[in-house]
Write a structure and sequence with these properties.
Length: 457
């Protein structure tokens, strides 16, 4: 019996797939914690025989090698890059899975070795049923092409050719199976909907409206994307192999005294609690990181050779944080503060607080021309769409390296879209010796709801 299941990894918005018919199944772009694919295969009464990678991923550690060790499956990826594992595939190569046929298309542009995998059903002719597009074509967007800045127009042109000469000609009936959904750093404008067809994208995907090749290239080379430092580690792991992941790391419970000692020894204390909880009481020197922010911002702010101690709000946050971290290659999760901040507070150890500024009060301060820094840490695209007059813009991912642009003696209010990034920024400033720091809880969302006057452009 044929089946296809999509596995979504939250945070990185990664979409992987397992497809099977009869005795055999294949997996496309598996995540690092890969036991889920073996479980699905067992439930379906199949065995995983092949693993396909649509490209060398930049934003997460791929789980192909671990899954191959578990199942004996072979690994396949585009031949245009010299991987240290697996087998290269070329345009036109085909693989049978029961009555299904998988055909390889070389679709460079996002990366040079990118491939797409076309699905046909032998019982119903040669027309494509679906296509796994990797990061070439998304729902509502197309892949980013900024990884080769010295060849910017070349790779943008390659993506145009891949989409308009290979993917769109598959036919409007073709179901689209991309490698990411909304929230991924691999595209700016993906739809929140995770189902579409080539035909629907042809009609409604705004980037596909740019049917002129030069116009498409101009658009792509003028896009602005951020590249977290951890991308380089992901590229290394995904080309040359990552450390085996036999089991998920298990952070050990630590007393307040143990956490204090670990911090003195160089560990980073990562506080997973909400912005409101962190602002109310936090361990001096700790870094705020609301749980759902880990996939997007840990890679900017944490080093791979530093121990990480978690400050959770609930025990459940620990296992979720571990999943987020191992998917982007962090394994030095040494422990967590047992019983959370309460244990720190009752121990008598010092804690600090961050003041909160209501959106209406913030706007009034600006109108009164008070002398303070309003630090907006959103992405530049968000900032241009609407900002408060007089704001200083430094993207959160760049704040550590641009901290010298700010005056530590001047009061600073951090600001973002909803307050989650603002609290991270506030904690960074505190770690760098800024004493007069406040956080705009609710930030831009609150501003819009209270009618703040915004500037654009």
């Amino acid at each position: 019996m044929m089946f296809l299941e999509k596995i979504k990894s939250e945070g990185i918005a990664h979409l992987s797939y397992i497809l099977g018919d009869g005795r055999d199944a294949v997996v496309i772009d598996p995540r690092r914690d890969c036991e889920i694919y073996a479980q699905i295969a067992a439930q379906q009464g199949t065995r995983i025989t092949r693993i396909f990678e649509t490209h060398r991923n930049e934003d997460y550690v791929i789980g192909s090698e671990d899954l191959a060790r578990r199942t004996g499956a072979t690994i396949h990826h585009g031949k245009a890059l010299d991987f240290s594992y697996g087998e290269g595939v070329s345009e036109g190569d085909t693989f049978e899975v029961g009555d299904l046929v998988l055909r390889i298309l070389e679709t460079p542009g996002h990366t040079f070795e990118s491939i797409s995998i076309v699905i046909t059903d032998k019982n119903y002719g040669d027309d494509a049923v679906g296509v796994f597009t990797g990061d070439a074509l998304f729902i509502g967007d197309v892949g980013r092409t900024d990884f080769y800045p010295d060849r910017a127009r070349e790779v943008a042109g390659a993506l145009y050719d891949s989409i308009f000469e290979k993917l769109l000609p598959l036919g409007d009936q073709t179901i689209l199976y991309p490698a990411h959904g909304a929230g991924s750093v691999c595209g700016d404008s993906m739809a929140s909907r995770e189902f579409s067809t080539i035909g629907h994208e042809r009609l409604h995907n705004p980037v596909l409206k740019k049917t002129d090749r030069e116009s498409f290239i101009d658009f792509k080379v003028n896009e602005h994307h951020y590249q977290p430092p951890y991308f380089r580690k992901m590229e290394e792991y995904n080309q040359y192999g990552s450390p085996p992941l036999h089991t998920l790391p298990q952070p050990i419970p630590l007393s307040a005294g143990d956490v204090e000692k670990a911090q003195k020894d160089g560990a980073v204390l990562l506080d997973l609690r909400s912005p409101e909880a962190y602002a109310g009481a936090f361990i001096p020197g700790s870094l705020a990181m609301p749980l759902e922010m880990i996939p997007a911002y840990a890679g900017y702010l944490l080093d791979y050779d530093t121990d990480i101690i978690l400050i959770p709000e609930t025990p459940e946050q620990i296992s979720e944080a571990v999943e987020h971290f191992i998917r982007i290659g962090y394994e030095r999760l040494s422990g967590y503060l047992k019983n959370g901040m309460h244990s720190w507070e009752v121990s008598g150890l010092k804690y600090d607080r961050i003041g909160a500024v209501h959106a209406a009060a913030l706007e009034q301060r600006l109108k009164n021309k008070e002398d303070f820094t309003l630090l907006d840490v959103r992405q530049i695209s968000e900032y241009k769409q609407g900002r408060l007059a007089g704001a200083t813009h430094i993207f959160l991912g760049e704040l550590r390296n641009r901290i010298d642009e700010l005056d530590p003696d001047k009061p600073t209010v951090t600001f973002c879209g909803s307050g989650k990034r603002a609290i991270i920024a506030a904690s960074i400033l505190k770690r760098h010796g800024f004493d007069k720091v406040e956080d705009s809880l609710g930030s831009m969302q609150a501003c819009k709801n209270v009618g703040c006057e915004l500037q654009q452009g």
